[in-house]
């Protein structure tokens, strides 16, 4: 009898876990032939699976990442999985604003089109500093992508209709921005939450300033994903998280579905500035919908990256 109860409990647990991990898939079959897509951090995790999905649709895909050796390996894997030879990589270090500027200069000289920009690369909850003296989370997750997007915005407008998809996280709800201390770098988790909130404000303000100009913007929470973000932490923490991720987190392929949805779906195109979860629009906490804060962050970011 004990054995029977154990079997029943195991089956119930199994189906509960499957239900918790159930997600929608992007069913839009839109082709991207002739389109150029740029994916930051496309050498691993959600970024790589996004690159595979968009390359399969016929897009010219460029992954931008810091490690050239890993990027080369990722390009080979993406080509193999997508059956496309139209995949390339360029070097980009989002923790160094000069690297961002050099990347954009090279990209604009080399590429005549940019139809979809996927701001995917990100740093987890770590306490470190960028080369420019910003907290690593805020500097990479927000400022690096802010500068990148602004420098590439003219090309996006030229290729309209075009899209910018920025990855964020539902953890944004646990913090608010402090404009007296945007460079906050004390508690790792709170630093990360603030950077993800900044991603949402950035996406909203980008949608506002590009309204009527052919560029649409989306913030995406991909879900909690089984990716390599734990590499920045101790061995014991990694082992613990491997068990938790296996039980509750979704695969990178599943996590990429909402990113792909926002990159191709006509339904998403009608919700520029929106926040998307599980291939559909989702609601935000009231403080994360504050247009005044979004505008203030944009202006502050312009000063920090020396665009203003």
From TrEMBL:
Keywords of this entry: Membrane, Oxidoreductase, Transmembrane, Transmembrane helix
GO molecular function, one term: oxidoreductase activity
Superkingdom of the source species: Eukaryota
Keyword Phosphoprotein: no
Residue ranges crossing the lipid bilayer per the database entry: 6-21
UniProt keyword Oxidoreductase present: yes
Annotated family: Belongs to the short-chain dehydrogenases/reductases (SDR) family.
Stated name of the protein: Uncharacterized protein
Organism name: Takifugu bimaculatus
């Amino acid at each position: 009898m004990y054995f029977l109860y154990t079997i029943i409990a195991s089956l119930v647990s199994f189906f509960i876990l499957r239900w918790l991990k159930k997600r929608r898939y992007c069913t839009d079959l839109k082709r991207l032939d002739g389109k150029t897509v740029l994916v930051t951090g496309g050498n691993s995790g959600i970024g790589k699976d996004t690159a595979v999905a968009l390359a399969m649709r016929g897009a010219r895909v460029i992954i931008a990442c810091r490690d050239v050796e890993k990027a080369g390996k990722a390009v080979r894997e993406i080509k193999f999985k997508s059956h496309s030879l139209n995949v390339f990589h360029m070097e980009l270090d989002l923790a160094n604003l000069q690297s961002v500027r050099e990347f954009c200069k090279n990209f604009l000289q080399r590429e005549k089109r940019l139809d979809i920009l996927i701001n995917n690369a990100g740093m987890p909850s770590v306490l470190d500093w960028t080369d420019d003296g910003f907290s690593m989370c805020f500097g990479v997750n927000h400022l690096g992508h802010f500068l990148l997007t602004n420098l590439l915005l003219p090309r996006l407008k030229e290729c309209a209709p075009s899209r910018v998809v920025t990855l964020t996280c539902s953890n944004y709800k646990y913090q608010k921005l402090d404009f007296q201390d945007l460079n906050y770098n004390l508690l790792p988790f709170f630093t990360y939450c603030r950077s993800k909130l900044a991603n949402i404000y950035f996406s909203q303000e980008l949608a506002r300033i590009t309204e009527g100009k052919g560029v649409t913007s989306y913030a995406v929470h991909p879900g909690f994903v089984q990716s390599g973000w734990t590499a920045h932490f101790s061995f014991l923490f990694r082992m613990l998280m491997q068990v938790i991720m296996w039980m509750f987190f979704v695969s990178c392929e599943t996590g990429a579905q909402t990113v792909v949805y926002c990159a191709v779906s006509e339904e998403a195109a009608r919700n520029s500035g929106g926040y998307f979860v599980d291939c559909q629009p989702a609601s935000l906490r009231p403080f994360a919908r504050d247009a005044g804060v979004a505008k203030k962050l944009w202006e502050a970011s312009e000063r920090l990256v020396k665009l203003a």
